[in-house]
Amino acid sequence: MASPPHTSKTLKLERYNSYLRRLHSTKVLNASSKLIFRVTLLIALVLILFFTLNYPPLSDKNPNHAHLHHHNFLSAALFTSSAGGDAWEKQVRHSSTPKKPNGLSVLVTGAAGFVGSHCSIALKKRGDGVLGLDNFNSYYDPSLKRARQKLLLKNQVFIVEGDLNDASLLTKLFDVVPFTHILHLAAQAGVRYAMQNPQSYVSSNIAGFVNLLEVAKAANPQPAIVWASSSSVYGLNTQVPFSELDRTDQPASLYAATKKAGEEIAHTYNHIYGLSLTGLRFFTVYGPWGRPDMAYFFFTKDILQGKPIDVYQTQDKKQVARDFTYIDDVVKGCLGALDTAEKSTGSGGKKKGPAQLRVYNLGNTSPVPVGNLVSILEGLLRTKARKHVIKMPRNGDVPYTHANVTLANRDFGYKPTTDLATGLRKFVKWYVDYYGIQTRVKKDSDINSEHPEESP
Ligand SMILES: NC(=O)c1ccc[n+]([C@@H]2O[C@H](COP(=O)([O-])OP(=O)(O)OC[C@H]3O[C@@H](n4cnc5c(N)ncnc54)[C@H](O)[C@@H]3O)[C@@H](O)[C@H]2O)c1
Ligand SMILES: *[C@@H]1O[C@H](CO)[C@@H](O)[C@H](O)[C@H]1NC(C)=O
Fold it and tell me: Where is the NAD-dependent epimerase/dehydratase domain (predicted)?
């Protein structure tokens, strides 16, 4: 595409002028208004072309994926402008139609996110239909979300770009596809960011969730819903390991409070409308295609760049520990929860009978002190970290998490199998690959590759 040269405009004008001179004076008025109209049209076209060619790209810190901008713009233009069009509907249907008999048809919210992208591909690979929804917000580098989207497209999973709060878009999706399940993973994540932008938590985790439930309850048939709560709901709970029956009324962050609110809201929609609802309390999920705002991720980045890292200690100088859970284990848990979810019982927005309401921990059951996490990374990266040990600021983090997963094991055979060293090895391999880093990092051959993986 090129903008028309200015000469064409002048030529056109000249032609019009000589044309006008030949006209009777009575016609002059009519013709000149036509001229004004056409010139305006021409200017508008030139302006549109100008803005199209100069469309500002999203920020991108990753030169390896610069080509994605182009893809972004094209897909955004194609898919947003034609949302509701024939081609769009065809793509939505194709993506969400299961390939195996009795396969699920799942709407995955937050599909361009870390957990959402992994789950979407896992579902698609076993023959279920999957449609993604994501707003591609810039809480962390959106180019990573776009790269995951690209990977999903390769796996025939289409992501609709839109917000949880867009009721007409969600209704439209349910008009086009009779989803059997929703895997609701879209949320404003992160504990510390809640102090900077509290409203984003209210908007996505509370208002957005309610909007989704409103659409789901009105849908025919009503889908069964599996959604991500968080281990953070245990807050200041000191009983370990954390079990589903422990108290969760002492959140330490607004993030935790919105997740706890989600659990209560789930109770309400189950009670009033017969929606089948399962909340999964994830414990610090990590792995390839992970989240740049999480410690294992930015420690890797900072260690490689020779920057100091802050390692937290509790107020009484104990090590902070986390029940780090590898992404593949979490994916298995999500699929297990979907497979054992009973149907919702309501129809036409009315409850017809009692429906399933569940909450499960999905953790690794072996907390690791953050100091050990750093040592493992130092080994994998063959670089000594510049550790800066400080007291954990009171900004929402809890000192310790440890999951009791007896319930998930009993109900869908959940059993985590990846220890932190094994999982981090896979993460680091992905990290250096994705960011194209040349370092003293252990060679591919010794880092990993017994199971070369294609999934994100
Ligand atoms: N990763 C973890 O350790 C962890 C732990 C506990 C709970 N969780 C929960 O699991 C879920 C998935 O987490 P993740 O690590 O994949 O996070 P993520 O940020 O990578 O994924 C969330 C995705 O949702 C999208 N999104 C956010 N708000 C949206 C909105 N209003 N409308 C549409 N899309 C929106 C984001 O763009 C993002 O791609 C979240 O609900 C999170 O709170 C994660
Ligand atoms: C784990 O939770 C189950 C109930 O889900 C409980 O019976 C068991 O005692 C708990 N285990 C520990 C070690 O607390």
Answer: 106-343
